[in-house]
Amino acid sequence: MNAVPRAVERGTPGSRGLMAFEDVADDPTARPGRRHWCLDDLDLPAIEHAAIVDDEALFYLLVSASFIETGSDTYTSNLAEHYAAHTDVAAWLTGQWEPEELQHGAALKAYVQAVWPEFPWQQAYDSFFAEYAPLCTVDQLEPDPRLELVARCVVETGTTAYYHTLRELSREPVLTDLLGRIRTDEVGHYKHFFQYFRQLQDGQPVGRARVARVLHARLRELRESDSDVALRHVYAHKGRLFARGDPSFEAVSRRLYALVSSRLPADQAVRMLLRPLLLPAWLERRLDPPIARLATWIMAP
To answer: What are the angstrom distances between the C-alpha of 240 and each of 12, 116, 260, 297?
Structure first.
């Protein structure tokens, strides 16, 4: 998804924190050889319905996320083909990244259907996918495989921040657990994309100016993200759910983006965004404030 814990150097006030890049290796759920979580690990019968069923914002945000994650295999084949010459990258994309993304979609779908069984999930998803699938083309990828890995780092930064934000908004324990699991996966995905970028850089480096161009362009594209498409189809199929809510899709969209952008952990996201530039630590620190302001402006409604 294009959009936004335990250990954190700095965090937003009242935040439970976004796991920093360096902290991934210290998280037991992110260690090589671990058993990846599965749907049976989620205690769906224990959902505290009173804590979530009337939360209109989380309804929209969770359903739209479930759509995008469920459709992730649409562009996995494009990426795998793009990295056919880099067999380790292609193998990871199809063997780990795609299954984990699809599992996120299945888990979010299961949660949504448990809380809002009257929502026609499959009908709404089919409508969404008919519009979304044609957008997932090879033309969207950066021609240079090194720069596409940079673009992937931006996307994974956005999804990490997004799921962190949803977790902060959650007051329902099963949902909080699920969002924490997904967020940890997204941090791990970011780490893989970054490590593959470093490997390709070691062989034939691409200049920082080109990396910066991709970072800036992809960050700006987050405003015109896949979530806009998904949200429209959630709104179109919600029926009588939240009938007393906002009177138009535009009003719903403005309110949701205001809510999410006000909670995004910009400081940690900026550190993730700056890593592909491979800057000295002192320069990263100097760039933190202006990049944070840019990120906040882009993500604002």
So the answer is: 36, 12, 24, 34
Residue 209 neighbours by CB under 8 Å, 6+ apart: none
Tens of pLDDT, residue by residue over 144-203, are: 999 999 999 999 999 999 999 999 999 999 999 999 999 999 999 999 999 999 999 998
Q: Smallest Cα–Cα separation from 167: which of 186, 194, 190, 152?
A: 186
Contacts of 149 (CB under 8 A, 6+ apart): 193, 194, 196, 197, 200, 276
Q: Give counts: helices (H), strands (E), the chain.
A: 12, 0
Q: Examine the pLDDT at 244 and tell me if it is beyond 50.
A: yes
Q: What is the pTM of this model?
A: 0.86
Q: Are 275 and 153 in contact (CB under 8 A)?
A: yes
Query: Given this model, what pLDDT does residue 129 score?
Result: 96
The half-sphere exposure of 139 on its side-chain side, counting CA atoms within 13 A, is: 3
Place domain 44-299 in its CATH homologous superfamily.
Answer: Ribonucleotide Reductase, subunit A (1.10.620.20)
What's the one-letter identity of residue 243?
A
Give the integer Cα–Cα distance in Å for 214 and 221: 10
Query: Which residue has 């990295």 as its token pair?
Result: 83
- Compute the C-alpha angle 68/69/73, nearest 5°: 100
Tell me the residue type at 110: A
- Annotated domain spans of the chain: 44-299
pLDDT tens across 112-139, in order? Answer: 999 999 999 999 999 999 999 998 888 8
